[in-house]
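Newbie here. two chains, one complex. Structure please?
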Amino acid sequence: MTQILLLEDDPGTADEIRLELAAAGHGVHHRATLAAAAEAVRAGGIDLLIVDRQLPDGEGLDLIAALRADGFRTPALVLSALGSLDDRVRGLRAGGDDYLPKPFALVELLARVEALLRRPDERRDTRLIVGPLDLDLLEGKASRAGRPLDLLPRELKLLDYLVRRPGRIVTRSMLLQDVWGYSFEPNSNVVDVHIGRLRRKVDGEGELQLIRNVRGQGYVFDVPA
Amino acid sequence: MFSMFRPDPRTRATWRWGGALAAILILQSLVLAAIFWVTANGNHRRAIEHTLLDDCSFFALTPPAERAEELRERLARDIHRERFLALFDAHGRRIAGNVATMPVLPAGTGASIVAPVAPTELPGKTSDVARLTLCPLSDGTRLLSGMDLDDTEEALRLTWQSLLFGLLPGLVLALGVGLVAGRRAARQVDTMRLLTERIVSGDLAQRLPVPARPDSFGLLCAHINTMLDRLQMLVADVRGIGDDIAHQLRTPLTRLRAGLERGLREAQDRAGFERVIDRSLAEIDGLLGIVAALLRLRELEDGARRSRFAPVDLTRLVEDACELHRPVAEDRGIHLHCNCVPVPPIDGDASLLIEAVANLIDNAMKFGPPGGTVTVRLLLDAGMPVIAIADQGDGVPPAERSLVTQRFYRVRIEGSGAGLGLALVKAIVDLHGFALGFAPQGSAVTIRCGRTGY
């Protein structure tokens, strides 16, 4: 079981996050002050940090910076009240690995936590074979159980992204950010429609559904057993 | 005692004005006196020296035997008793004249100096001040010739007196003018102070009086009035936004509450509750979307994000935006036509710019006729990249074009969305210093990607 340290001073928010993460099978250690959190991390055994920005005894980013300076490589997810887009840059500069502005959906938080805990295989394999899927990125071709899939370049990239994160929720904003390279919240369902098309091409009639829609929040690539 | 006397700060202006004027007058009088002194003194001295030198040359030509007689005659003719004439022998003893002793003077230079003399014929006077010259004569005797300076001194004293007496009314005048000017300034400041007090207490409708032909103070008042206009507008804006936000949130919140209530009452099983929760989540996401958009608007208007500007490839960006929307367009039966020319890179924030373009494409697909064509073009106009997005509809009615970029303004009431899209687009365009425009005919909306200065 992974151990997550949650540094958050608002008890209500902390409870919600703890329940969500616990339900997903993570051990959560909640601390409300920088000092207590620093002590817990230095004691060891922590796999991930979730750090709020404004705390009673200071700035959450300072903790991350201090830990990084001491050689702690524990991945950190920074939470912050919405209000400044530059916060994201500052958060990442201070050593945070991802950044989530409040208010956020718990599913989005969970998706990013899992993404951080299991960093995807970043070796740029040009050939991916997962279950019935065979992706040849060099040739720009993909097939399912020998049936060639007629994918557009963007669809191949989407599939590549999903396949490298099997069993984990991938949210729309993650897709837009990592596959398209833009971070914004579109006010229409543009990403859904792209995924919808990809699903229709990948999951043929009578075939096992590989790309699953997690209602409201994102998608999961299910590896066939 | 002084501590009990608390001067009104406004009287300081009076004293400063009066003091400054008086100082100017005194300086003026002093300069005048000095000029008079220098000029008058110079003229008088030249006249005296001329007379003295005349005497010297006359006596030099007079035979030595007749000199004493001539001298006595001259003194007798001097009815004003202002002349000093005396002959001294080589040992400095007086031969004739009305000066008792020979003063020590530089001889033979023709120069005259002012020195005291001892008169012999003036009753009650043993010393007097005169301008003197000492000329050596051919037989070794010396002639002392001089002119009494009593008259000159009298004239100068009169000058000084008249200047001083003239100064007195001047000083009174200066203080008077200072008093009036100071009072006037104090009155103007009082008007302003009373007004600002009323403004501080919340009455923003007050304005300062500005005369028809304003002086610098009047101009200042006009400036302050302009500032108040702007302030009043901003306050009205803020109040309006607050009302708008409350109104915009109230409707979905009411809907959310009603839905939850009904769900609680009517849902029979787990599936029923799930449907209610799904609907509620969608409502809440909508609400959060409004809040997030408002916060982003405020942030964009702050302009802090400019620090993240980097060169942006507009061609790729517009093509990406088209590619992103193509499946949606096809699903809705809309032909999305994209036409981009290569343009030089511009400084900007790619995520914000694509958000603006995406918003405009979204609007075009939403408000254009069903089954129509949406055209996205990137072109160069006079070297400036221009993004133009058009549908086949009529576009925003001209009368509403200045309104659509305001928060919560919706051209069609029945349409979905909170009316924040174009406000966001405008904020993004403004942040970049670009210009958002509407084509005079049709629905084309353009972003001119050139610095218009910010």
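Moderator note: The longest helix of chain B spans residues 9-61. The longest strand of chain B covers residues 128-136. Thread marked as resolved.
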